[in-house]
Specification:
This protein has helices spanning 8-39, 46-64, 68-89, 99-121, 147-169, 171-181, 183-188, 193-215, 227-240, 245-265, 273-284, and strands at residues 2-3, 6-7, 137-139, 144-146. It is mostly helical.
């Protein structure tokens, strides 16, 4: 059976690959949207945090025998703690000035992180084995579904929509949103706004680290893995709407699938299709698909 002249298995395989990539886009753009939407910081260090999440998992396995499942817990905690230090020592100085300074600072931090890890581990890349429980594939009849890639999609969706629910549908989320719009009033009600801001940045860093651990068995772990992805993720956030949590999730999944299908029908355009869509969206709706027009 064929679809537009493409064998069905090849078509579905590429569709799955696009969905996996879209899951990473969604998870990373979610962290960016949380940090920008609640703190107003354009966090260019997000790619480096994603890379460091993968390295924490790999170092834990190689030197301490840490399992993949433990890495999913430990890596976000370690990278989130680093996020706490960054927010308290550097970013808190920038909240009341032009956002471009936050972008430049976080870009510099990403270069520092890449340089340190490149000096320690080189650029050739490290392999991280798929956990035993998720090895192999499942025959669905119409296609062979790799178990680990199915897990990546499932785990990403759970984390993404769980975060959306926490921010948009709980009391804690309402405090976060109110604290960014009117911090003085919220603090007058006894809410520790600086602590809330600090934990928000740490949570965004932790989301990047989760994406790094999920990506580790799929791609080679290198110091440049974050910088290779962050530009696409920024495009996803712009298309979805800066600061829109749900927009980042849905747009990330959608663009991953579009990118995957483009590789089937017009491979030459697969590397630029996301940016073409971004340009079209910015012309038609500058606030993004899910952003609020000012």
């Amino acid at each position: 059976m064929e679809i537009f002249g493409i064998p069905l298995q090849a078509f579905l395989g590429q569709l799955l690959l696009g969905l996996v990539n879209g899951s990473f886009y969604a998870l990373l753009s979610l962290g960016l949207a949380v940090i920008f939407g609640l703190l107003g910081i354009v966090n260019f260090a997000h790619g480096a945090l994603y890379m460091m999440g993968a390295y924490v998992a790999w170092i834990g396995l190689e030197h301490f025998g840490m399992s993949y499942w433990l890495a999913l817990v430990v890596s976000p905690i370690v990278v989130g703690a680093l996020g706490l230090v960054i927010e308290r020592t550097l970013l808190k100085q920038l909240y009341k000035i032009d956002p471009i300074y936050g972008l430049l600072l976080t870009f510099g931090l990403s270069l520092i992180a890449e340089g340190i890890l490149r000096d320690q581990f080189g650029v050739s890349g490290q392999q991280y084995a798929v956990p035993e429980l998720l090895q192999g594939a499942t025959n669905l009849g119409f296609m062979i579904l790799p178990n680990y890639r199915a897990w990546v999609v499932f785990a990403s969706l759970v984390v993404c929509f769980g975060t959306w629910f926490l921010i948009e549908r709980t009391r804690l989320g309402s405090y976060l949103r109110a604290g960014t719009e009117n911090p003085a009033l919220v603090q007058a009600f006894g809410v520790n706004v600086p602590l809330m801001v600090m934990l928000t940045y740490a949570a965004g860093a932790g989301l990047a680290a989760i994406a790094g651990v999920l990506a580790a068995p799929v791609i080679q772990i290198t110091p440049l893995m974050g910088s290779n992805l962050i530009i696409v993720v920024f495009a996803v956030v712009v298309i979805g709407g800066m600061g829109s949590i749900l927009g980042s999730i849905l747009t990330g999944l959608m663009l991953g699938i579009i990118e995957g299908l483009t590789k089937v029908f017009y491979p030459e355009a697969s590397n630029i299709v996301v940016f073409v869509i971004m340009a079209i969206v910015l012309i038609i709706r500058p606030a993004g698909l899910f952003g609020k027009e000012k």
